[in-house]
Structure formats: C-alpha cells, structure tokens
C-alpha cells in the first residue's frame, strides 16, 4: 500500500479549500492533478532552459533538445517499447486521429470495416465516423453485457473478411471495466487484423507492456498520467509506421524540401510536424518518473484497496444506482441518485461540500444510449485518493 497521506503532500492543489471545505477531488478520470515534481519541471524548462528544439546550435537549444528527446525514452520504458516507435502527440485524441488519417484513410475504402465497442470514448469513435462519412467505411459495434463486462470473444467474432482494424479502449471511462486486450489482440492477429488501443484511462492504473498486449497502436494522454495537458504519445509498431503517410506537413517531419519535391524524415519525426509542445512533454517525462518512483504495481494495489472500500460503502447509500460493477473493475464509479434529480444537479450539490465529481455523458454517448440514460455522475480515483475521500462522498450522498 502507498502511504497516501504522505504522497498527498506532493500535490499542492489538494491542500486548497472549495466552498469553505477541504477539496475532495474525485475527477481524476477526467484529468489528474499534478505533483510538485511536474510543476517544478515545467517551471524549470520555461525559466532556465527554454528554447526551440532540434533546430538551434546554441547552448539553450541543445539543452532543451536533450531534455525533450529524453522523454521519448521515458515513455518507451513506461510502455516496454523502443524509442523509435514513440510518436509525441498532444494526447490520446491526436494519437487516434493520427492513425485514422495517416494509416487508415489511405488504406480503407467502401465496405471495409472497423470493429469498435459500445464503450469507446468519442475520441475513439469520431475519427472512424470521418472515414464512414468520407470513404464509406462500415463501423461494427460490440456491446458490453448488462453487468458491464466485455467478452473478448465477442470482439474477435465480429472480425470478418472486410475488417481492417479493431479499435478498443483499455478501460471504459463510464463503466470502469478493464478489457482483456491480450485476448482480443491475439484473436485479431490470427486473422491478420491490426488493433488500436485507447490507453487514456488504462495506462494510469497499472503497468503497461505493449509487447505483451500485442497491439499495433497504443495511444496515451499525459494529462491523465499526472502530466500537463497537451502532452501524450502514440506507440506505433514499427511495421505499421512504415505503412503510414505523413499526417501533417512542416518542420522536423522532412529531410529535404525543393520546389519540385519533398522527402520525409524517418518515423517518429515523420509524424511530428511543427514546433512541439516542448515543455508539456518535459512535464510528462517528470510525471512518468514520479510514477516510476512509486511503482505502478503499488499504485494499482492501493487503488484496488480503495475501490473495494468504495464498492462496499456506495452500496449502502439509499437509492443509489451504480453502473458497471463487473468483477475487477477499475477505480471509477458511475451512478445516479434519482431522488436528487439530474446528475448535473447532484454534482453541483456535492461541489457545495467541496467534493469534485463529473456529471454528463463523459464523451460516451453510444454507451449512454445502451444504458438507457443521457447522463450520470462519476467519482474517479487516483493514487492520492483515500478511504476518507470515499467516506466523505458517501456521507454527502446519504445526506441529500
């Protein structure tokens, strides 16, 4: 178990008060708070070393380039990958759009299929709808069962002769269910179909090994990993990168430009046009070093202990309806309390007690439709969440 109270001191924002009450932050699935190590790295980069990267011969440019490029190795270690397979992005959304535009769009045509689950975040739905609208691609949907569990065989069985890609979340941001990615990837690979994994929710809660998972693309979001917003990465299997066209044009993604032609840099720089989010990525590197210092296995054990406590205590709240309570669920809970009214009203009332939860569709409208709701409340945990945070939430819900 993590010494949570000690670690909470690493997050300055957790010491503040909201509406006169100590902050109880239960919205980490939307965006995690930032430890001092990240804040210091960001400030240092701007105050001491800032310059553009890759292009300058002067000292500051060399220092910033080294700091920035070192993050590629940190991300690679985090994913158990090779550095030249790590593409820097602004987050999971850009990573998925990159795959859609640079790999899928040039290869897919009318009648080709993409298999999705009903629990995908809009970031892993809308880019594929672009291909449906513009190129006649067919989207095939796989549902979760009533308990919020996804049968990996159902995904595999949805793969047909026209299937060109499977795009699947690692963890639903509504149900909290952890998907059996290794089984899905093995089944898809046996059928010659690549798999893209949206790791935005899953990467922060357990060790990630893209080689063991067996996927072809893995997108992660830095802001959910305790790093800055605007940071992230896409892991691309080397042979898939060779199949991808450049995504955007500009500096760093070229070797040479003439009036008649252009030649492109090798991956990953081929997919990183323009001045990047230099400092944000440096902050991501600091966040991953911070997580590594704690240990992802320890973080998982701590969060699962708080999840067990939350499951027991939330079940005692009169009138609560919980969604996605399949065994082995991750550290988030979606619920409604009809006696209070809309989830938005419920979230506003909790905010008056200093408790921050999310309310709405969570950018997962297809899943909400499957559940027969338009909105829910969601309490999501992080490594700094304590049993006392859960007790405060449950006491506030009981008092409404």
UniProtKB/TrEMBL annotation:
Broad class of enzyme this protein falls into: transferase
Protein name per Swiss-Prot or TrEMBL: cysteine desulfurase
Domain Aminotransferase class V: 25-393
GO MF assignments: cysteine desulfurase activity; lyase activity; pyridoxal phosphate binding
Source species of the chain: Paracoccus versutus (Thiobacillus versutus)
Lineage: Bacteria, Pseudomonadati, Pseudomonadota, Alphaproteobacteria, Rhodobacterales
GO term, biological process aspect, one: cysteine metabolic process
TM spans (from-to): none
Keywords on record: Lyase, Pyridoxal phosphate, Transferase
Reaction(s) this enzyme catalyzes, per UniProt: (sulfur carrier)-H + L-cysteine = (sulfur carrier)-SH + L-alanine
Entries under Gene3D superfamilies matching the protein: Aspartate Aminotransferase, domain 1, Type I PLP-dependent aspartate aminotransferase-like (Major domain)
EC number(s) recorded for this UniProt protein: 2.8.1.7
